[in-house]
UniProtKB/TrEMBL annotation:
It holds the Pfam family Aminotran_3. Keywords: Aminotransferase, Pyridoxal phosphate, Transferase. This is Aminotransferase. The lineage of its organism: Eukaryota, Fungi, Dikarya, Ascomycota, Pezizomycotina. The keyword Thylakoid does not apply. Its cofactor is pyridoxal 5'-phosphate.
Length: 476
């Protein structure tokens, strides 16, 4: 969570040592791990339980963002640990290109029993990025199989993040993560339309419906300009996460998108790696987008394994499966660790806890409390431009002028200052892409465990406000 940029932000040398977890435990020269930063070692986590993570220094931190919106049922859940152990004692690995396992079948059944929204098959992988690459390949192969090989283009959105593998990065628009690889590794058959970013995109006096219609119109024009018969898929996060800071779509947007995709025979790929698995208050985030909305392919990750195992998935609509069946009946894609038995056991146990404890409903209910608490406290502060999100997935955008929405200069690194101050107060929050990454406006993301206690939620809001106060004082 703490990058080198963060430790460069006004932290005293002794605190810097503690934050970095050095304190005689690890130093840069002694580590052979290639950390993202080559100039500092991130803090060392030694244990994690419930809503807390403990560092080598003894510092215990409230996990206000479940890592990167991952540990949805908290850490150290004994039922998940038991399920993993049991699976390990039965089959820890088998080559799942050639074989299947009862646990992979059970996980797919748990998620897809009754073919919700026409989704009928799950392809399990080990990360959100792999899920996105798999979805892109499945989409392209679908058209090859049904005799439309001229479809070679993809349309994505600004402020999108779909992962760091080459395919997933190609449909992302994270400026700093793409920069070194442009013209070398990322695909150039991708074009972009506006994000559903009401705070900066909705015009003065424009209604939600008008804004929605304008965005759909823009997508239509994009399809027209590249030739709709050349487009494989439109890719979107129902609630935009890492790069966008929890932006939701205006009413009717996804219904309009679905209609356009149907009109031109373009596939709709919804990326729910971050916003799915119940995080927004429904199991699938798109379920709140109105009747008739469904994806042809849907990606999952993060919360699927809840952090107990690296897990991702593509869920495929029966239409896509039928397409492949009408051709080669073989998905030309595989990974050594696809549908890994232990990963599937962890994910299955997480899904069972979610269902048994009614945690998706709690996410919706507690989310309403959380929204109100954020708006009533930090939402009133002078550098808070916008609070947005759904369920237990909230982004707070900071600006230096609320009236003009003028962002802070990148050199100020507002986001990192706040993350740093929160960490000092034993709270972990997620640093969204900010002005330092080439985007207007800094933001942080809050994504606590669905089963955090009421007291822990109160603490989160209090510590966040205290951290903000410290940054405001420093900036003034
Ligand atoms: N898609 C979305 C929406 C994400 O937020 C992320 C990661 O943040 C990914 C895909 C990539 O997932 P992973 O980091 O597991 O590869």
């Amino acid at each position: 969570m703490v990058s080198d940029t963060q430790t460069q932000t006004g932290t005293s040398p002794s605190e810097k040592k503690e934050i970095n977890g050095t304190n005689g435990q690890l130093d840069l020269e002694a580590s052979h791990v290639l950390h993202n930063s080559l100039i500092s070692i991130p803090p060392t986590v030694v244990s994690a339980e419930g809503s807390y993570v403990t560092f080598g220094t003894g510092r215990r931190v409230l996990d206000g963002c479940t890592g990167a919106a991952v540990a949805i049922i908290g850490h150290g859940n004994p039922e998940v640990l038991a399920a993993v152990q049991e699976q390990m004692s039965k089959v820890s690995y088998t080559h799942t290109v050639a074989f299947t396992t009862p646990v992979a079948e059970a996980l797919a059944n748990e998620i897809l029993q009754g073919n919700p929204h026409g989704l009928s098959r799950a392809f399990f992988v080990s990360s959100g990025s792999e899920a996105m690459d798999s979805a892109l390949k499945l989409a392209r192969q679908y058209y090859v199989e049904i005799g439309q090989p001229q479809r070679t283009r993809l349309v994505s959105r600004q402020r999108a993040y779909h992962g760091n593998t080459v395919g997933a990065l190609s449909v992302s628009s994270h400026v700093s993560r793409r920069a070194p690889f442009l013209d070398a590794l990322v695909l150039n058959n991708v074009s972009y339309v506006s994000a559903t970013y009401a705070y900066r995109g909705q015009l003065e006096g424009e209604s939600e419906e008008e804004y929605s219609a304008r965005l759909v119109q823009e997508l239509d024009e994009q399809f027209q300009s590249v030739g709709p018969e050349t487009v494989i898929a439109f890719v979107a996060e129902p609630v935009g996460g890492a790069t966008a800071g929890c932006i939701t779509a205006p009413k009717g947007y996804y219904q309009g998108v679905r209609r356009l995709c149907d009109r031109y025979g373009i596939l709709l790929i919804l990326d729910e790696v971050m916003c799915g698995s119940g995080r927004t208050g429904t199991y699938f985030a798109f379920e709140q987008e109105g009747p008739g909305v469904y994806p042809d392919l849907l990606t999952m990750g993060k919360g699927l394994g809840g952090g107990y195992a690296p897990m991702g998935a593509v869920l495929a609509h029966e239409k896509v499966i039928r397409g492949l069946q009408s051709g080669s009946s073989y998905f030309v894609h595989s990974h050594t660790y696809q549908a890994h038995a232990v990963g599937c056991a962890a994910a299955l146990a997480v899904q069972k806890v979610l269902r048994r404890d009614g945690l998706v409903a709690r996410c919706a209910a507690k989310g309403r409390w959380f929204e109100a608490a954020l708006n009533a406290t930090i939402g009133q502060r002078k550098y808070v431009g916008n609070i947005r999100g759904r369920g237990l997935f909230w982004g707070i955008e900071f600006v230096q002028n609320r009236a003009t929405k003028e962002p802070f200069p990148p050199a100020l690194r507002f986001t990192w200052k706040l993350v740093d101050e929160a960490f000092r107060r034993h709270l972990s929050i997620y640093p969204g892409a900010g002005t330092a990454d080439g985007f207007k406006g800094d933001h942080v993301i809050l994504a606590p465990p669905y089963n955090a206690s009421d007291d822990e939620f109160e603490d989160l809001v209090r510590l966040l406000n205290e951290a903000y106060d410290a940054v405001e004082t420093e900036v003034d």
